[in-house]
Amino acid sequence: MAKKKIVILGAGYAGLTTIVRLQKLLGANEADIVLVNKNDYHYETTWLHEASAGTIDPNRVCYQIDNIIDSNKVQFVQDTVVEIDKENKKVILENGELTYDYLVIGIGAVPETFGIQGLAEHAFTITNMHTAGKIREHIEEQFAIYSKEAEPKAERLTFVVGGAGFTGVEFLGELVQRVPELCKKYNVNIQNVKIICVEAAPTVLPGFDKDLVDYAVSKLEKKGVEFKIQTAITECTPEGILVKKGDEIEEIKSLTVIWAAGVRGNPIVENMGIETMRGRVKVNLDLRVPGEENIFIIGDGSLMIDEAVNRPYPPTAQIAMQQAVTCAKNITALVRDQGQLENFKADIKGMVCSLGHNDAIGLVFGKRLKGTPAAFMKKVIDNRSLFIVGGPGLVMKKGKFKFL
Question: Which residues of the chain have pLDDT under 50?
Answer without folding.
Answer: 404
